[in-house]
Design a protein that fits this description.
The complex is a heterodimer of chains A (286) and B (322). With 286 residues, chain A is mainly α. Chain A has eleven helices and two strands. Chain B is mainly alpha-helical and 322 residues long. Chain B is globular and about 55 Å long. Classes of the chains: A mainly alpha (286), B mainly alpha (322).
Chain lengths: 286, 322
Amino acid sequence: MFDILIPSLVDGLLLGFVYGIAAMGLSLIWGVMNVINLAHGPIIALGMFGIYLAFTILGLNPYLALVLVAFAGLVLGILIYYVAVNRVIDAPHLSSLLATFSVNMIIIGIGTAIFTVSPYNVDFTLGAVDIGPIRLLWTRVAAALAAVIVTGLLYLFLFRTRTGKNIRAVANNRTAAELMGIPSSRVLALSFGIGTMLAAIAGGLIATFFPFTILAGGGYELRSFVIVVLGGLGNPLGALVGGLILGSLEGIIPVFMQTSWVPVIEFVLFVFIILVRPSGLLGSRV
Amino acid sequence: MKILRKPGFWLPIMLVLLLGLWPVMTDNAANREVVNSILVSVALASSLNILLGYTGYVSFGHIVFFGFGAYTGFYLMSEQGWPIYAAMIMAGLVPAVLAYLLGSAILRLRGAYFALATIGINEAARAFVKNFDPLGGSVGMQLNFQIYNDYGGAAQALWLTYYLLLGVTIVILIVSYLVRFSKFGLGLMAIRENEDAAEVMGVVAPSAKTRAYVISAFFPGIVGLLFFFKNATILPGDAFRLHLSIETIVMVMLGGAGTVLGPVLGGAGYQRLRGTLLVTPLFRNVQLVVAGVLLLTIILFIPAGVVGWLRYHVRGLRRVLE
């Protein structure tokens, strides 16, 4: 029993760090501008393909390429913000949902035309180490470590730099922030960019150990929704914890029942939490 | 009957009827398939409009009722041997009951929380049906071809489902019109504009919202049954496709949310556009990109949709386009 459970749980937890990074992006965008980014999944997929291209064509080390992918994600996010989101930022929810969904369609459309929907794979390995019954793949450990570093950097940025403080001010009260002379439009664009950057990083990390297609982001986007709700909308650290919870659930459940039941439990839990505690398990009371 | 003299009542129905009679006149099965897919879109968009357009609640879970009703009817027909008419009624009623139970819980949520919850319900439903063996699990269910003999053979059965779908679509339009111009509909629109103010004014918001949800959930199940009866197979992935939910929202937005005519134009327009893009060699590979760019343009610049835009800019049309 335990010799199956423990390795499965460890695998799930390591994956949970990466889920957390993806969800953090969604959560940040939600928290700062009240927009649910439905283009999150395709951007995760773009992160995967970014690593793939950098690794196979340029021959870069995937972790080095991650820096490039992160930067590209940031620029892409700022671009998406100015093209699609800026105009509907004050409109009802439906408008921003549909605007980001149309970005989703455009990215998936271009991606399908270039890469088709067949699976790709980054042929990269760091080997593994055995600790008792646990077999640790170094790529997964590195991904978890990268996730922790990114979270740390995000926190330093949000709490220790002036721009980060501007972001938090705008998230808190946009009108008041504007009155204090903060250029809210630029801050929102930057926040959106950081959100998509996190999605791209998560995608890049996932690409180092799972095969993927251009549509693969959808599953991670849905997981991000679950995690964001677990951790509380708009709470980045909560997203990391939520990711760990979801990751360990994905590790534990298959030991007791068929893997295909995992999404059933995840989404029932998701709806249940929205109903009972919409501020999330870790969020403050609304 | 005063409403019989209103152009806003007749226009959408006449449009759908004319479109629906075109394949009958030409007696052409290919035309019928084209119109069939348009009618499915119009029916789904119009029923969603009751919740999305009138009440202002964004549901990503409309397809849950489509899939759930289809599964109910399919099960009754293939396993219990029910005739299609009885199965259709159950395919509407069971999702309506589900909507009542779900609605009492999730309609308390507002704005994006409601939207997120419906995404969760859609995914949970699909994952559940995939694992639920009495409904065929991940391989779904198939109809025995013998079943078409009860309706005069496969060719006749296809025409029958077509007529039934046309009938259901027209009923939806009538219901949509009646709701919009009733006191109940006025309450819904008050909720859309400002839920707290509506409650203060005496609209019993929880019960009105639940009723709107139930009405909008009744029809997609019937449409779903007709759709999958025609295909003779049903799979969880097809029946609970989140993408179709979102496409339905797009159709409502394109035509104009909160109007009777809007979803008709939006559903037909979107379906035709997709069909055209798919068969045009230049756009075939990038049809999703073209559709996305078009959608984005509309969201950013004409958020009221076609009908809303016309009503706003052409004064004379306000009494005609409802």
